[in-house]
Amino acid sequence: MHPAAGAGRPDPVRAARRAYDDVVTPTSRPPATSGSDVTPASGTPTRRVLLASPRGYCAGVDRAVLAVEKALDLHGAPIYVRKQIVHNKHVVATLQARGAVFVDETDDVPEGALVVFSAHGVAPVVHEEAARRNLRTIDATCPLVTKVHKEAVRFASEDYRILLVGHKGHEEVVGTAGEAPERITVVENPEAADTIEVPDGERLIWLSQTTLSVDETMETVRRLRVRFPHLQDPPSDDICYATQNRQVAVKKIAPQCDLMIVVGSSNSSNSVRLVEVALEHGATASHRIDSVDEIDPAWLDGVTTIGLTSGASVPEILVREVLAWVAEHGYGQVDEVVTAEEDLLFALPQELRRELKAAGMSAATESAEAESAASLPS
What we know:
The structure is a single chain. The chain is an alpha/beta fold. It is built from 13 helices and twelve strands. The protein has a five-stranded parallel beta sheet with strand order 10-9-11-1-12, sandwiched between helices. It has a four-stranded parallel beta sheet with strand order 3-2-4-5. The protein has a three-stranded parallel beta sheet with strand order 7-6-8. Helix 5 packs parallel to helix 6 (171-177) and helix 9 (241-253) runs parallel beside helix 10. The longest helix has 17 residues, at 59-75. The protein starts with 11 loop residues before the first helix and ends in a 7-residue tail after the last helix. Residues 1-41 and 370-378 have low confidence and may be disordered.
């Protein structure tokens, strides 16, 4: 599946990597509080919010959520979804209210029913199980995850040992590793890179989960290369453009923040990474929340500047609710810090597009949630 992008558009993944490398490190940034942060009349610091941009929905998440919405429009409830379509409680609850039924395995889907595979991808065995049970399927795997699957198939067929940097048990890693389980070894972190064992004489290449911390991944690869100098790089970055862009934005504002709030669910790898990136790059404190109800007012004690961002599976409405809450607590000034512009869209899954066309229905590639994703509250 190819992005619905215009000809000649720069590669967003490589552009994000360049942006990430260009961001100023905390040690070289001026102090967080400067003269411009002080209200002349009172001499007291101005309470403010630094709102990171980009944030929230990425193209792959929007495509997956929209696939379920369109399937419900086309077929009505129930529509079965294997695993969470994306890792966000609000999104899952909203789709459940419309008639989506989330299941752990294809065995939980009635024979012959329609099932959507999540944005995180599935192993080939899952497709085989679905076919055996005569399930109709819509594959909402993010195209950037599909790219990593294809790389795994290619390099396994060329007799490489693939070192897959990622978190064991994460759905994306399970799916990618399932493409060639006998040729893939998962490396979870830099510490694991120091102890991993591979057979002597094998050609080695590394791939990665798309939602990791860029810094930690590069450290893992650096340590692997110390032990295995012949380790080859993938043909292009596997960490997706949106993951990198959101980390760049957090890295930019973190040194100025007394508190960073990251909106995202606990099982969202990219959201959890944003908390870590904020702390690593100068934020005094950093907390992840699913919704505004989880904010502890005590976090605001002594805080002048709040940083606010959201993971790639988070609808903008949750960010707006946080902005409204902090405004009620005296943080009404909102400065949006833009480090990149995103306009990438992915076409809906081919099988769904065919059905929508046959029914005379729209296959528009942006969900209602995403339409306002970059807008500030009025």
